[in-house]
Amino acid sequence: MKVERGYPGEDRLTTHWERQSHGSTHYLWIDPYYVEWGSHRGTPQSDSSERILHDRLLEGEDQDRIAQEFGSDVLQEVLYTVRHGREVPRFLKEWRAAKTRFEFWKSIPIDRTLAILGARPDDDGSRYYCNVRHEEVSDETVLRAENVELHLELWHARFLFDRPRVPFLRSLTVDLDGNHSAALVHAGRFYIADNHLQIVGLHGLEHFSTRNLEPRSGLGTLYRIVNVLRSGDRVMAEYHDYQFIPLVSEIGDRGYLEIHPDRGIVARCVAEPVRR
Predict the structure, then answer these.
(1) Contact 176, 198 (CB under 8 A)
(2) pTM of the complete model
(3) Please, are residues 232 and 217 in contact by the beta-carbon 8 Å criterion?
(4) pLDDT at residue 7 above 70?
(5) 3-state helix, strand, coil in the chain (%, to 5)
(6) Is 70 exceeded by the pLDDT of residue 16?
(7) CATH for the 107-270 domain, from 2.40.30.60, 2.40.128.630, 2.60.40.10, 3.40.50.1580
(8) pLDDT at 21 over 60
(9) Is 68 exposed, middle or buried (0-12, 13-18, 19+ CB in 10 A)?
């Protein structure tokens, strides 16, 4: 079978293979942690794939399936690249970043009461999601605090002021870091989950965001903020691991971060240990 090898500009170790068969594209690629292979017919909807951790492949798992799909010569190339991963620059870059992420998470104190509070919160930001329905335009999440009404629609936040400090400023629109999934208001601040977490004051000024923490924490990409919860005066962001990297037991695939508007992240807790 004819197999195309490598990405443009790739180093001597191949990390991508591709072949065509009966209108389908069959592909195999190696990332810093997994080997993934699958096929598609030119659309995302037609894509189907599987993946396996490097160590499990080296132990023999799925080697016969890869050889059947791409040939024994490709299998040997894959095994060689996996064994010599330290010679692939982008692998090394990710492994260094992973070490930085782990150090960041270890620096956050663990508070196991967060799991209890998160399971039975006094307020759940997801219940306000798209609480205002529209027939001809997108639904909105609308929250109100004092003389301010916050309208969240997709990637935008619009503040409407009943009694603005500046007479001509009746509204203010700001961009969110992502498509919002939950929001709540507490103690004169809006807490918005949009893959990141943003805390915004009643006049549209940002108090805190996890955006600047992403490079050293993975928050917003590898660990996405999906909900915001309140128990008493304690506000928590719920994060999910989106399985782009192997499960880190100390972080888990779901957990809570206690958030303070001035001090940022003050505590963390894994919600429940899940194996994969």
Answers:
(1) yes
(2) 0.81
(3) no
(4) no
(5) 25, 40, 35
(6) yes
(7) 2.40.128.630
(8) yes
(9) exposed
